[in-house]
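quick one, 240 residues, struct below
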Amino acid sequence: MSKPLVVITGASSGIGEACAKTLSAAGHPLLLVARRIERLEALNLPNTLCRKVDVTELAGFEQAIKDAEALYGPVDMLLNNAGVMLLGAAHEQAPSEWKTMLDVNVMGLLNGIHLVLAGMKQRQQGTIINVSSIAGRKTFPSHVAYCGTKFAVHAVSENIREEVAGDNVRVTVIAPGAVETELLSHTTSQEIKDGYEVWKEEMGGVLNTQNIADAVAYAYGQPQNVCIREVVLAATGQPA
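---
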């Protein structure tokens, strides 16, 4: 392949799907992983391996990466995009929802890093881009556990960036504000979802997924000796 392999988690919709289309159009072979493989296959992108993977299960994730590397060569960029946002008041929300977010948003991200980082260090080449959120930099009502997971993404990213800077490996955080995706639909409280929709209208609309894909492509497209450590972006009308 003329361009190196990119791995994208949570690629079946939203930000992951937009990034897959953008990086495929740029000529990269892809490994797309998600639980809804039919959505991945429906994208019908060239030089793309689709795998049904739960990022919290290390063995399946590892096998998918091995299969992709056998076809397309070593992973040059991992986009840790898989995530869950389940909003709720701390005294009301089910702890099982907290665990789901911690498992996917933190452990799933760490699993991906674990699977590609040693090879990147050995090759002295590679990029890890972690999709976080403005909720990883400040708090919001009903976001307590979600904010906790995204603050963790920021901390993990910066810690690993420092560790691998001398190995010519880059780590970037993309921290979007509100984006038009399926993310909110997983929240069980209709009152919270309704309030969120009102907030989106009050700010005059939110980012679209292509805005985030463009930010990812910009950060990844820099020369290897340039690390965009963090990109924070939101709709101009988003005040918080």
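The beta strands are 5-9, 30-34, 48-52, 75-80, 126-131, 169-176, 230-233.
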